[in-house]
Amino acid sequence: MASQGTVGPSIWVVSDGRAGIERQALAIARALGDMNRWPLIAHIRSEAHRPDPIRLTPSAPQVWLPPTAWPDPLGALPAQERAQLKAPWPDIWIGSGRRSVPYSLRVKSWSKGKTLVVQTQDPKAPLDNFDLVIPPEHDQLDGPNVLSTIGSPAYFAAGDIEQAALDFGDLANAPGLKIAVIIGGGSKTHSLPPGRAAELEQELTALAGKGAKLWITLSRRTPEHARIRFRRMAEKLGARFFENEATDGPNPYLAYLSLADIVMVTEDSSNMISEAAWFAKPIYLLRLQGRSDKFDRLHDSFLKRGIARWFDGDVELYQTEPLREIDRVADRIVELLLEKHRVTQSA
């Protein structure tokens, strides 16, 4: 990734602190810094770049109102957060999360039109307030400034992938079929109760019995009973296991994705499925308890393209293409930014 700062446009990632949503906005920011893309916009120079996300935690009563009805969005913030939202304003603002929306709606006015305003997900606000809205396809949002993606925007820099391979070289050299197993858990629509966790343990144990090498990682949403169960299973099978750095050392997630032959992922996370799809590996979806129409559409978008399959007890290597929706997103932002600066310079 190119070094952002005085050379190149300034970018702010502004989020409501939810890790999964923020991860999408950060992926977009990093994709803009890709060495194949950054030289196109490096001539746009700014001192306003923020390398870290700006996380906003507005308080009641304004948070109870629709985002367009907040009378004083800055007044809803703690003083330390409020102090971050001031000039010089960024060239690109990438908002993520519903509580970032009231600020995304106003930054164009605050910056006197300087800032290109990008919002991930469905902002639940009039779309003409944004330069670009990036929802997942399964949200079924339409508009002239809407760029829908299959799943979530995912991005991994080539240097990071190379470093992961060096840091976890033993994984690359492991014999046999290497299967990364990414386990989520509780959400608004899905859960991982003890009974289903026991079934997953049996299914994974059966794969290991056929010679597969399992590399298991958990998410923040994995329930405690499942954490205990899968750690014990990994110890019994001799599988690799990661829960957190304090207990298990450096995070092998990127190495798992890039070095595995097959990726198995629970069905409850658009990010986890999309990040696996970035690497063009066979993906097997693991069922949890629960469903929703939105997630049914998400799964179908991967299934109908041959990117993923439901796990039915066995796996095979199959050919698929990498899904890199982030390229369409970042390229469109570059186009909009260049157009904005051409208009500004000619005014």
State the gist of this model.
With 347 residues, the protein is α/β, with parallel strands linked by helices.
Task: Give the tags.
six-stranded parallel sheet; 347 residues; Rossmann fold; globular; five-stranded parallel sheet; 2 domains; 14% strand
Commentary on this structure:
It contains 13 helices and eleven strands. The radius of gyration is 21 Å and the shape is globular. It is of the alpha/beta class and 347 residues long. The protein has a six-stranded parallel sheet with strand order 8-7-6-9-10-11, with helices on both faces. Strands 2-1-3-4-5 form a five-stranded parallel sheet, sandwiched between helices. Helix content is 37%, strand content 14%.
Mean pLDDT: 94
Number of domains: 2
Radius of gyration: 21 Å
Helix content: 25-40%
Number of strands: 11
Instruction: Specify the overall morphology.
Output: globular
The biggest sheet, with number of strands, parallel, antiparallel or mixed sense and barrel status, is: 6 strands, parallel
How do the strands of the widest beta sheet line up side by side?
8-7-6-9-10-11
**SSE string:** EHHEHEHEEHHEHEHEHHEHEHEH
- How many distinct helices? 13
Which regions contain 5 or more consecutive residues with pLDDT less than 50? 1-5
- End-to-end separation: 32 Å
Return the structural class: alpha/beta
Which strand-content bin applies to the residues? 5-15%
